[in-house]
């Protein structure tokens, strides 16, 4: 089980203060941060309660947040694993070659690369917004198709695959798809059908999300043991976006946003070094990895309402990344 040594560094007090201010602005009840630097936890901080009800549980290291779209990085890992194991020949394979129950006329020349990078152009399974590879549009159509492909290739649901390959070997007991409410979940009052990984009901503790980023930072090698092949993590965090996208548009690996140069529409701060990668969920949770500084930074929120007037989520997440970069650069 992964259990890094901890030594809180006062350097990050200002970062925690920033996260707390944003928590209040977006009307979240819960917030947390965890920073791993040079194989040590140098900042772990919790604030607030699970919800607004009287007597609500205080947020602590056992609290599991709804990480929303960060779940896509777990899907990306599974696709990278399938590619490494030869179950997928190439990310440039046509999606229609793997799914025989989908409208091939709408899919057309859409490839797995397009699904992983939000460049598929599908508005839904019945109409498209643009030709594949020509633009970038964030939605869940691509990830849902990939989840179907994973189930078909491995003959098991996504959650079972990840439990066998990652969660159990790593000792991740605070990561998983949850259908039923319990006291350690920061619940969002949503209804879910199952725990198979098909829905956006992945809950993760702050530290285990940081460990998820750390696993990618270390390319699968933990305490000198290669848990999974290095190549699985390398290809998942390398830019694979079509080369002709307009400059302001984000660049993706296997769903991770990856830094190459400052871009107006990416969620990565301009000050982050090349090769940094990050994922953000609509609840405000984020996982940032900065290989140059051997750093992982996680922040957690439970935002459920719309963004308030005057709050720019892109400016906020970029500021978070820039602050992390600033504080760890000289540690």
TrEMBL record:
Domain of life where this protein originates: Bacteria
Domain Beta-lactamase-related, residue spans: 30-309
InterPro entries assigned to the protein according to its UniProt record, in alphabetical order: Beta-lactam-related (IPR001466), Beta-lactam/transpept-like (IPR012338), Diverse_Enzym_Activities (IPR050789)
PANTHER family the record matches: BETA-LACTAMASE-RELATED, BETA-LACTAMASE-RELATED DOMAIN-CONTAINING PROTEIN
Protein name: Beta-lactamase family protein
Species, as recorded: Paenibacillus xylanilyticus
